[in-house]
Amino acid sequence: MNSTIIRFTAMSACLDPMKLLYVILLGFVMPIGMKVASMLHGASDSQTFEMLTGKVGVAFVLMVLCLGLAGNTATQSGRGGEYLPLIFTRPLTRCEYVLSKWMTITLIGGGFAALQNLIIAAIGLHFGESITAQALFSMLIERFMDAALISAAMILTMLNRNPAFQIFAVLSFYIWLAGQTIPPVSVSTGGKALEDLSIETTKFMLGMSQYIADFILPTVNVYDLVSNPASAAGALIAYLAALAVYLVFAIEVTNKREFFYGTN
Amino acid sequence: MFEDDVDAKDRQLAVAVTDLVKTYPGSDVCALSGISLSVEKGEIFGLIGPNGAGKTTLIGCLLGLLRPDSGSIKIFGKPADSLSVRQITGYVPERSDFEYWMTARQFLQYHHGLARREPKDREREITEALDAVELSKSVWNRRLKTYSRGMLQRLNIAQMLIGKPRLALLDEPTLGLDPIGVTLVRNLVKKMQEDGMTAIVNSHQLDEVERVCDRVAFIKQGRIASVENLHSGAVSDYFLLVRWPECQLNGSLNSVVAQAAGEAKASVDECHHQWGRFSVQSNQMAVQLIRRLVEHGLPVEEAVPERAKLEELFASESKAGGRQ
Fold it and tell me: Is the CB of A85 inside 8 Å of chain B's CB atoms?
């Protein structure tokens, strides 16, 4: 890990007031408002709330604050205008660079999401909801684990110049995101072709989203893992495998790539 | 045993490049076609040549950022991409980009950290670097998005200095600078040399290359067309235009001029009634020539050095052979 990369990546993420405003509004104001409203009216939490306070919330924070930082203008889309070649003239290994970026982005995304979860848990407690320390701890750890996986995938996508890979990665992410936001479809419209087609498409999308969630962005339920390790061992292995693959590939593609001005 | 000898020899050189070949992926044109050169420690070495000749690609290879297809590069006897080499190498890119939210100080703090300099020396070394490039103190804490092109270029040079390199690679270091900035770069390079640093300067500013470099390589179509020594070789020659009034030597003018030139070891390029054009190899030779001309009865009124030969070399090498 390189402390200079960590420090300046964090500064870069947190010094844009517009980005911070988006994060505060969608990451804090909205879910906190939803939580307070549901507590006051005795309603259960909405799907949107679950989304904003879970993995999607982490992805949102990372996309707003850190997407550009993951590659640090490494895409070499034009002649000149790149920053990385100068960085790589310094005594710094590519592995060190990738891991430092990953660590920082994980801490930023996980930190914001954990803080949000903590505030929401405090609101719940205030209104009489019961939450155990183990559940709270598990929730916070989960946010950091989500951030670790998503940031590794982001870094790999931003540093790998292969367009086919980038299209695959971005498409997968959006299908996954769509799957999180579309409500489950189980009704039939009784023979209306266009509506049937729409429902079938949605089902297909949800199925795809589930595959992606299982294989590309697997989730570990930390509470289950702590209370009954055997039941969540498979999910943990899938998670660790995906994380390792992303990081190893990110280091590998960065090592193999020539970063220089105008090499496109 | 041989390897040991080679390493020992390489260590005497700042840069040793042997048979370097580089082709970019997806291109069938060789960007570098077997370049070999050596740069001695403490030397200021220039790279000149037309656009697309391979100069920047060569610098990319020297920095270990581009991987050659074949050939070898040794920097102070070590491979170009080793971390220990990067610790002592500084680079001024031609087209650098900046994180515009940073201030000049933050930008240099970043590079100070990346260069693994001692944290306790940070503020002092940053101040030294900013002073060296004569960036006004009032802008040190201003965000880079408010900087002009020239100010950014000065900062670009400061980031090279911040790592206290032993080898500096400068790619068009005067780009975007005003005449004061150009003079500053010239003085900086000279100061670097006095401090024992080695530098490779890639520039289209031939007069600047001629003023600061010890030797210069003309690169064309990925090859070194010629390497000239600017202190003792043909390129350091320049023409001296000498004027004199009508005199009593008209009958023997040519022979007198030729004799004076011969005594000064200069050569006569042209000789007319009221002026002559001589090729001289140094200022001392020019002084000697003028003295001899006066001693032989020519009342010299004016002596003016003419345009630099590097410019002529550029023109002639560019024309020679045309484009492949």
Answer: yes
